[in-house]
Amino acid sequence: MFFRTQYEFDLPKGYIDQNGELHRHGMMRLATAKDELDAMRDPKAKANPQYVSIIMLSKVIVQLGALDHVSPEIIESLFVSDLNFLQNLYTTINENENPVIQVTCPHCGKTFTEHAIFTDD
Question: How far is it, in rounded angstroms, from Cα 12 to Cα 84?
Answer without folding.
Answer: 10
